[in-house]
Amino acid sequence: MLRESFRLLQRFYRLVDAVWIALAWVIAYWVRFTTGWIPVYFGVPPFKVYVEHLPLVLLVWMAALSYGGVYRTDRWWNVAGEWKALARSSAVAMVLLVSIIYLSTKVEFSRIFYACFLCLAFVGLVSIRRILRGLVQWSRRNVSGSRHVLLVGDNTFVAPFCENVGLHPETGLTIRGQLLAEGEQEGTERLEVFGDYSAIRKTLQEEGIHIVVFTLPLEHGGQLKEMLKGIDDLAVDILVIPDVFPIMPLHPGIEEFEGIPLVRVRASPHEGTARLEKRILDVVFSGIAMVLLAPVLLIIALLIKATSSGPVLYRQARIGMDGREFSLVKFRTMRNDAEKANEPVWSIRDDPRRTRLGAFLRKYSLDELPQLWNVLKGEMSLVGPRPERPEFIREFQKEIPAYILRQKVKSGMTGLAQVRGWRGPTSLEKRVECDIQYIEGWSLGLDLKILWLTLWKGFVNKAEQ
Description:
By secondary structure, the chain is α/β, with parallel strands linked by helices. It folds into 3 domains: 141 residues, no CATH class; 101 residues, Rossmann fold; 176 residues, no CATH class. The protein has 16 helices and 11 strands. Strands 3-2-1-4-5 form a 5-stranded parallel β-sheet, with helices on both faces. Helix 1 packs across helix 3 and helix 3 packs antiparallel against helix 4.
């Protein structure tokens, strides 16, 4: 019954969004061409042409919103998550729409019209959905009544779960108490303990519980099946919060594959639309940078050729996303015989193998500029953990097990560790800590912030001074 109500609500959201997107397309035409608010210099285009493209607009936008995850109707949705999902999906939808229209038709729509439509669509989607969700939340608080929750177990997520329920009364949830393992006496602060796991059926029946949440520690997971079997005939919602911290989670979550639930313990944050967004950012920014910096690249190449013998570019095997090896390109900053017999040597401060020009290039990170080509090819990203040589990775993994988690995203030209000053011959542990923090908190906004910090202060390599 609860699942069916969620599906009906989801369909209603889709219908309302589609109606608003169509209205926004029409209103944008009215604002741009008929109100007189914005000057029209080349005549008013036929309204019929814009209407004919409306099915394409709806198809692209509804697909982007669906894949962007904005139709989650579960009880745990939050305002910040909704706003971010709508902003991300709207941006992707607009890029796709403009690209498809530009490549597949000869019609040229006004850029001001596009801007008006995007603003109207996004603001309207946010406003309407906040009104609808507000009504749903009001209903939960005042009509449906509070739903009682029983926690079973005491893992690392119990305290934050209780805190979040308290911070979000709109969920309509009240935590009635907790069951603990036999022999455990103290539960979560301010929660009543009804007994041990064996009392689950009695507690559900006597305390009027609507939702049971299993928060079992990892070592008690084997008891879950028996407890579920004992309550399978009771009309309660059942949720499980797995204790995944002991097994090193990275970007955890829940997925579904053809009806099969999958608990994601470790995965890359760059999946689905996120992967597309990051790739668009990489291609656009690296392409523009290569064009603008072409004279600088040429001058550096000529200077390297004129001041030392050997090739201009230096290629080196590095390990990227998912352990794939690629050839990283840099301007050569050392003598041509810096690594005799091809033996890998760790870079040190004031490395005597550097040329005079090489020292200057490394100080200002100019030797890294050819890696824009690696970014364009898709081997690297503009932002991410710095790639390392295969020989060193084997050593680092022995010292720091979490080091391997850096390979869940593409390597980057710059990253959180670099803009915080952890680069070159600095603390490996600090660099890994920053890299993991970047992966866990990734967003397109974080990438843009790191790129800005790199331009603002990150070009000076303090480790090389």
